Amino acid sequence: MSDSEILDMKNRMGTLEDDFYTIHLADDELSPCRDLDSPELISTLRQKDKQLTLAAQLGKALLEENQALKEEKDRLQEGFMERIEELQQENHELRLKYEAQEVAWDDRVYELEKDAQELQEEVTKMRGKLREADKDKTKTVQDLAEKNQRLSEQLNKRPCGIRGNLFKNISSRKIGEQFSEVFCSRKQVLRRSNI
Asked: Residue 41 belongs to what domain range?
């Protein structure tokens, strides 16, 4: 049965329903001696039979439509439930991944903080060592300056002794070098003259 036929039946049912429930029989129709084979009664019964058949068809069509709608609703509801279950599963998996990633990040942050703390301690130690080295350097420079001062004072006290020896050493070296140069140049001159 098509949708237009169902609508047409519904419209007719509205008027037929009113007629079906409002049967008005005259007093003579209710009399026991009425004629059961009368054409009016047969016509009325046929009309009521048609109305009942039409009402049954309309009821059947409505039940079929209702059943189809119920099946569609059940199918959609089942699809929605499956989709909800899938989304809940995805949500659970994402939550697990997030928690695992969060633990990994926390571990990484802990490691970086530990490394930073160790580096800070190492920097502090290096600064301490650098201060110690600066102190040692300053002390060494002071010690050397004091030694130089003492040596200068000693040199000034004995000018002839140490200075004289230094000058003798320097002079004798210069004289030795000059002698070597002269000796070498004579050898060269002699060789040239022999040639």
From this structure: 3-157
108 and 177 share one domain: no
b (16+ CB within 10 A) / e for 167-190: eeeeeeeeeeeeeeeeeeeeeeee
Three-state secondary structure string covering 128-160: HHHHHHHHHHHHHHHHHHHHHHHHHHHHHHCHH
Q: Going residue by residue through the chain, which has 195 residues, state the pLDDT in tens, using 9 for 90 and above.
A: 566 666 666 666 555 455 544 444 444 544 444 566 788 888 999 999 999 999 999 999 999 999 999 999 999 999 999 999 999 999 999 999 999 999 999 999 999 999 999 999 999 999 999 999 988 889 998 988 888 888 888 877 765 555 555 555 555 666 656 656 655 665 565 666 555
9 three-state secondary structure: helix
Based on the domain organization, do 103 and 133 belong to the same domain?
Answer: yes
How many domains does one find in the chain?
A: 2
| 54 and 86 assigned to the same domain | yes
Tell me the pTM.
0.37
